[in-house]
Amino acid sequence: MGKNNFRILYRAGCVLIAAITAVFFLISCTTNSKKAAVLTADERRWLSQHSNELFFAPDPSYAPYEFYDAKEGRTKGLANEYIALIEKNIGIRFGIIRAASFSDILALAKERKVSIVNAVTETPARSEYLAFTDPYVEIPNVILVRNSVRDDLSLRDLAGKKVSVVQGYAVAEHIAATYPQVRCEPVKSDLLALLNVAYGISDVAIVDLATASYFIEKNGIVNLRVAGNVGYPVRLGIGSRKDWPELHGILQKGLAAISPDTRRAIERKWISLGSVNILQSRIFYGALVLVVLLLMVTGTILLWNRQLHRQVQLRISDYKKAMDDLKQSEDRFRKLFDGASDAVIVHDMEGRFVDVNKVACDIYGYSRDEMLHLTVFDIRPGIELAFMQNVWRRVLAEQSIFMEGMHRRRDGSEFPVEVHCSRFAEGERPLFFVSVRDITERKKGQEALRLGEERLRQSEKLNAIGQLAGGIAHDFNNQLTAILGYADLLADRLEDPRLNHYADGIRKAARRAADLTRDLLSFSRKGKYLTVSVEVHRVIGETVALLEHSIDKRIAIRQVLQAHPSCITGDPTQLQNALLNLALNARDAMPEGGVLTFSTEVTELPENAFGFTIPEGRYAAISVSDTGIGMDGETQRHLFEPFFTTKERGKGTGLGLAAVYGTVKSHQGAVVAQSEQGRGTTVTMYLPVAEHESASETAASAVHVPAKNSVNILVVDDERYVADLIADMLRALGHTVEICDDGRSAIDLYAKRWGSIDIVVLDMVMPKMGGREVFTAMRAVNPDIKALLVSGYSLEGEAQHILDLGVRGFIQKPFQKDDIARKIAEILS
């Protein structure tokens, strides 16, 4: 009769069998009676007490067991019908909490925000917080592959393949425990697992047979088949809070009250499995023989005349259905394809684009039609065919690879990308599936991190050298104090103009040496002497006034001052020294003349800008620019390092810009240089804007008050020549002076004669007992002690701590007679 005749006979037989089965079912249903759950009085009391705490969260996408039907606005499915019958049997309604996925439901159960989990398989991990009823349904988990894969598979065969399985499912735990060599890629839902395989993203999906049948039929997925049984079936029951055994017993009774016929009816309604072999029924064999014999005799003549017509109609119907299924499948693929967050490109073995998504069009700046006329060589600048062929061979061998590179947009601009390339086949045609992610922001972050690390290394190097430089500067200041002071005293006593000129030369040399120590202290960040409100524009004006008298006349000086407010908190002298250092470097970069520009503006900086440890906020940007020879990249990298210089020997110390760096750091700011060879250099200092003006520079400057004709002064300094110099200066001013060269003897002397000592001039750094200990001991003798602190360091750090204890004044070495005279007058006032 042919295959088509047999199909017709077979279908007729199936209709007859279905009718007979329905009759038997109706008869059996009339013989079964409903059972109600019998609860004890304690159980009903417990239910009443906890009725407001009984919540469950239905799975939104576990069809056909439990899923949310958006059209009807309610949860449906096999498991949902069971929970409804249990509610009816025990006489209570459970509250519902919505969850996005099954893993979220388990998380809610762990946190005891839901007390009941429906449609769940018992596992050791879940048993730690859930108690389980007997399973009400058991369905095999199966291995699904594309139709092009011909082999049958078991779990052992899945090593090295991409396996999609829903996150949190019991079968995923089973595979991880028993087949660790199988790499599972978790997905949000069973449908996504099936689509991953259908579209070649994954090799295998593991889904239970009922769910797979439901989604394949509902979504028209036509290219999948069952390749094997996992051997670990889905046994769905109801889980409840383990700390409520009463609830577990109630649910078990409610489930047990559902009759076998009702259970079969629910299963027939929701589960239709193509893999269930009805040929295992002996009744079916007998019925099949009878039906075939009857139909062979009575149906052959009637059906033969209609055979050709039916065959044509069947083929047309199958063709239309296949076309509809294909269109639906293409529509679903396009939604997933265009919905990806990264650019996706499909190309062939020659690099020609076969398909692109919307994100790819947006990133590269082409329309879809334009991109389909391009190749990989159009978006990868300078790439060679041999290189791409090597990449494709690696993909074919390794299945997928990651790499980074530069891609080009339509406008010619280039940007960094991360590329994931994998292979799949369209029939016999090998294709490449390429995911492209724009990593511009990531690269910016990495560059910022690199700059931060470079700044940190530079800061650590500067700190190490700075400790040495600061110590040298302190000791050097002691020597300069003596040289400068004695030159002052010598000049006061010389009447011969020529000899006075020599003394003045000594003083000038000492001051230049003092400038060098100042740079050392600035570089070591021990040189911020004052903390006052500094008007930046005034300091720039004073700096320009100094430069106009000394700079090459071929260099024009310009000011573009736009900062408002233009006040910072810091040390005006240090700021001016930094500006002078920058200006003199700019001058040296313009040997043939040019333009030197001072400019300011107020700008907002983020936290840790330019790799410096600074807070977010408003900063005064103070720039010094030149139109000189500029610098190469290597010079710029070492620009602020101490002792680095490009000048000839004897023409630069290499400390000027290191001192600028130290000054900026001590003011909690940042400094950045921008330069291009032949186009000049701009160095910008970013210093925090003073939101509230502190004591002004005028208030902080020296005030001249008349001193008493003569006072008794005790000088304490472990360097005898420095102590003698200070004593000579003070005696020249008309004061009576006594000297102690260590702290212990000074304390003893002060304890005996404090009533006749008007002022103590105290060195900060001394062996055995430093200035802090000596002052503390003297203040214990006389709380009203008047003391002047002397140090080669600045006011910050230890010196400021001692002033906070009550010392009346501070003077930094080296100093001259007029300086100490002014400080004595201030203290006496």
Give an overview of the whole structure:
The protein has 829 residues and is an alpha/beta fold. The protein folds into 5 domains: 35-136 and 236-258, D-Maltodextrin-Binding Protein, domain 2 (3-Layer(aba) Sandwich); 141-232, Periplasmic binding protein-like II (D-Maltodextrin-Binding Protein, domain 2, 3-Layer(aba) Sandwich); 339-438, Beta-Lactamase; 532-697, Histidine kinase-like ATPase, C-terminal domain (Heat Shock Protein 90), CATH 3.30.565; 702-828, Rossmann fold, CATH 3.40.50.2300. Helix content is 46%, strand content 21%. Helix 18 crosses helix 22 (656-666) and helix 19 (536-548) crosses helix 20. It starts with a helix and ends with a helix. Mean pLDDT is 81; it is low at 1-34, 274-285 and 694-708.
Give descriptors for this structure:
829 residues; alpha/beta; single chain; D-Maltodextrin-Binding Protein, domain 2; disordered N terminus; five-stranded antiparallel β-sheet; Beta-Lactamase; 31 strands; five-stranded mixed β-sheet
